[in-house]
Each structure stands twice: as C-alpha cells, then as structure tokens.
Design a protein that fits this description.
The protein is α+β, with helices and mostly antiparallel strands. About 25% of the residues lie in helices and about 40% in strands.
C-alpha cells in the first residue's frame, strides 16, 4: 500500500497464512493524538465501538504491564471486555483483548501509528487469534461496523479538538 494514498474508511484484511486480522485507517490527527485516544479512558469511552452502545471503564492502567476492563451496554444487555497492556509506547501499543462472552478467544493486538505528514496519521492494527476459525468468527461478528462507527466518532472528537 502506498503511504500517499488516503484511507478514509477502515480497511480490514484477513491474512491467508496466519490467523491475523489487519486494520488500516487514516486520520487527520497526529500520532500523539491517536495514542491519547487509545490510552486515555475518558477519551476511549467516547469513541470505541458501534453507535448506540454506552461504555464504562471498570479499570484502566494504560502502561506496560497494566490491565484494563470495560463494559459496553445497550438495551439492558452488557458486554464485558478485558485485557493486559504488554507494551505501551507513544508509537506502539501491544495488548491482549478478550470478549468475556468468549473467554477462550484471546487476541494479541498490536497498534502502531505512522506519521503521513501534514497532520495526518495512519493507524495500523493487527489482531492475532488462535485459529482461522476464530479469526473468521471475529470477521462475521459485526466487528467491521463497530470499527467503522467507532472511528467515525473518533474523527468527530478530533475535529472538535477534544483530543
């Protein structure tokens, strides 16, 4: 992918050789702003996930060796997620991600931020899961909607100067 091409919506790709999902998305923001949006719990709850979900943080320690848990709710239904921050740097975050409805389905996620210049940054993310079956189940779960709607909310926060 040429870094001068603009990616306004998330590109989600399944690797054919390993059970990885790759996501790429451009933002009119600095890498520092994207890092803050992913590590500051007050900001994170404002944009994560699909529209119509209310998210609350149970605990959040965004540092290498820290952990997190949040709950997303809609129509009286709650969905818990948790993980551990393995590495937190301003240019890269490595963490685990578990949906508590599938406690054996742990993903190892890596996010990194590529400065495109002119106040634009490309977010790269990859999620490694334990099998191709798990990867395909994640892709069928509606994750694309949650990612696109969440990043659209993040765009609005960035435009409003909230990050």
């Amino acid at each position: 992918m040429n870094t001068i091409d603009t990616i306004e919506t998330a590109v989600i790709e399944a690797d054919k050789t390993v059970p990885i999902i790759r996501i790429t998305r451009d933002f009119t923001a600095t890498a520092e702003q994207l890092f803050r949006a992913h590590t500051d719990p007050t900001l994170f709850v404002q944009w994560v996930g699909p529209n119509g979900l209310a998210t609350r943080i149970e605990y959040w320690d965004a540092r290498t060796g820290g952990s997190w848990r949040y709950v997303a709710a809609r129509d009286g239904n709650e969905f818990g997620f948790h993980g551990c921050f393995h590495e937190v740097r301003t240019d890269r975050i490595v963490q685990t991600f578990t949906f508590e409805g599938d406690p054996d389905g742990v993903a190892l996620e890596t996010l990194w931020f590529e400065d495109l210049g002119d106040g634009r940054t490309r977010l790269h993310a990859q999620s490694l899961v334990d099998s191709f079956e798990s990867r395909d189940a994640w892709l069928r779960s509606g994750m694309e909607t949650g990612i696109d709607e969440g990043y659209t909310k993040l765009d609005a926060l960035l435009r409003a100067g909230s990050v």
